[in-house]
Design brief:
- The protein is an alpha/beta fold and 171 residues long.
- The protein has one domain (5-76, 89-170): 3-Layer(aba) Sandwich (Rossmann fold).
- The chain is 38% helix and 17% strand.
- The chain has 6 helices and 6 strands, in the order ααββαββαβαβα.
- Helix 4 packs across helix 5.
- The two termini are 22 Å apart.
């Protein structure tokens, strides 16, 4: 689990298909995770093979071989993009808030776009940069970076779990 290139691919695929991304916090207890899945009522669940089947009656795609087979079976031409209104939901992040019960915080396409533009203009990153992702992508702070790095044409390096020694080696 954790940050992987398959997660990043699935993220952009969900948006291109007109869906709403709901990154799940893999650190939640099973009951909390089940509550989040019940609340957001997903159409499909992408999960890493390291994570157990949550037992929810939803179509699941296990990242890895199954994910690669699905990609390989698709036609080379991109499917038509569904219409998207900038006010439409793009992502829902579940946060514990003040009560400890996860609540969905909805981010629109417009808010993602404006955050990416602002970050691209102020963070000093260009398309020549390589960005090491160390923050979990199930956290809103983790997802902000892929938007503008991708828009700028930068390179993503995914670190599945934070490991100080591995970060030093990669840097």
């Amino acid at each position: 689990g954790g940050n992987t290139h398959e997660l990043l691919e699935a993220y952009f695929g969900v948006l291109l298909a007109g869906g709403v991304l709901v990154p799940l916090n893999i650190r939640l207890a099973a009951a909390e995770l089940a509550d989040v899945v019940d609340d957001c009522a997903p159409v499909v669940l992408f999960r890493h093979p390291d994570h157990a089947d949550p037992g929810h009656p939803v179509r699941q795609v296990v990242l890895g071989d199954e994910h690669e087979a699905l990609l390989a079976a698709q036609p080379d031409a991109a499917p038509p993009r569904p219409p998207v209104d900038e006010r439409d939901p793009a992502e829902i992040f579940y946060t514990s808030g003040t009560t400890g019960t996860p609540k969905g915080a909805v981010l629109s396409h417009r808010s993602l776009y404006l955050h990416a533009v602002h970050s691209a203009l102020t963070n000093g990153i260009t398309g020549d940069d390589v960005v090491l992702h160390t923050i979990p992508l199930f956290h809103v702070n983790g997802w902000g970076t892929p938007h503008y790095v991708t828009a700028l044409g930068g390179v993503h390096v995914m670190l599945p779990r934070f490991d100080p020694g591995e970060v030093l080696r990669l840097v």
